[in-house]
Design brief:
The chain contains eleven helices and twelve strands. By secondary structure, it is α/β, with parallel strands linked by helices. The protein has two domains: about 260 residues, Alpha-Beta Barrel (TIM Barrel); about 55 residues, no CATH class. An eight-stranded parallel sheet has the order 7-6-5-4-3-2-1-8. Strand 4, helix 4 and strand 5 form a beta-alpha-beta unit. Helix 5 packs parallel to helix 7.
């Protein structure tokens, strides 16, 4: 779904290990701001022998948030749980009890033909039992999509499967670091992942298959304390936007404001998008100069862009011209 504000509102998705005992307090105290989503990870950030303990801590964090929410208002982000396997989903949702209402959905790592059916069945079953929507965000990071001989078939098959639960898929996400790892690549803080052609080509194929029907979110940026991290992040987000991505995975709180600022819509784009979607369709002309007179607006050609632009403006805001 890419025609509703909900699917654009994941925004900056902050990753956090699910066993971090201070996370509920940080949310309650507003330490991450008021415009982000949160992924509580039980997968790569947790040692294999510590999963049960992490699940217990996660359940406690949700109970703490639920108790505090009943006493006073604070910004509660969209909360997602990144699981390891499909069977974890139902078991965790039941274990969360009443606090499960705080969980927006589940993140599905290494989404592939091998696990897609099991994941989709679990998400469907949870939604049949729940009195509120439970969403999901599959991550395309499995090495299986690297092979050029089969990539298109795999991606289109996975899309056919996800289309069964399309309304429950908030975003398609991409695992930039996992795909780079498969090749032994790593970008520096003055380089964009879109310069790494084998990985960028996979991203392009994912956008081609999913981008018309789903919001696809940009890959993680792993720098946060280097001298160039902020400039590098702005640079990569500019490439993300040009290639069709919306939003980004972040791993450090200081990255949240950069993502939100970078995704603000310019006044020029906002004015043109508004004009295009409010076009007088009884007019004999469906083309006109932009408000500033520097480019052409055409209703039939630019209406999809205009809708995306206004949805991003509604969530991220409009950037005032200097």
């Amino acid at each position: 779904m890419n025609n509703s504000l909900l699917y654009y509102s994941v925004g900056a998705l902050l990753y956090c290990p699910a066993n971090r005992k201070t996370i509920a307090d940080s949310i309650i105290r507003g330490r991450f701001g008021t415009q982000y989503s949160l992924a509580l990870c039980l997968e790569d950030t947790i040692r294999d022998d510590c999963v049960a303990e992490a699940e217990h801590i996660l359940a406690g964090s949700l109970r703490q948030l639920a108790a505090q929410a009943s006493q006073g208002a604070f910004y509660l982000p969209k909360l997602f749980v990144r699981v390891r396997t499909a069977r974890q989903i139902g078991r965790l949702y039941a274990a969360f009890g009443e606090s499960a209402r705080l969980v927006t959905g589940f993140i599905l790592p290494k989404f592939s033909l091998e696990n897609a059916d099991a994941y989709i069945q679990e998400i469907t079953r949870i939604n049949e039992q729940s009195n509120q929507p439970v969403y999901t965000m599959p991550i395309f990071e499995s090495p299986s999509i690297i092979d050029l001989r089969h990539r298109a078939e795999i991606l289109y098959t996975l899309k056919e499967k996800l289309d069964q639960i399309e309304e429950r898929v908030l975003n398609i996400r991409v695992g930039g670091n996992d795909l780079c790892h498969a090749f032994g690549f790593r970008r520096h803080d003055d380089e964009s992942i879109h310069q790494i052609r084998p990985v960028a080509n996979i991203f392009s194929d994912i956008i081609t298959v999913f981008g018309r029907d789903y919001v696809v979110s940009g890959p993680v940026w792993e720098y946060y304390h280097s001298s160039n991290w902020e400039r590098g992040l702005y640079h990569e987000i500019a490439d993300d936007k040009l290639c069709g991505f919306v939003g980004k995975t972040v791993i450090y709180p200081s990255q949240i404001d950069v993502v939100n600022e970078a995704y603000k819509v310019s006044e020029r784009d906002y004015a043109d998008a508004s004009a295009i979607l409010n076009w007088d369709r009884t007019s004999h002309a469906l083309v006109a100069a932009s408000a500033g007179g520097e480019r052409m607006n055409e209703y039939k050609t630019h209406s999809n862009w205009a809708l995306r632009t206004l949805l991003m403006a509604e969530y991220f805001g409009v950037k005032k011209a200097l």
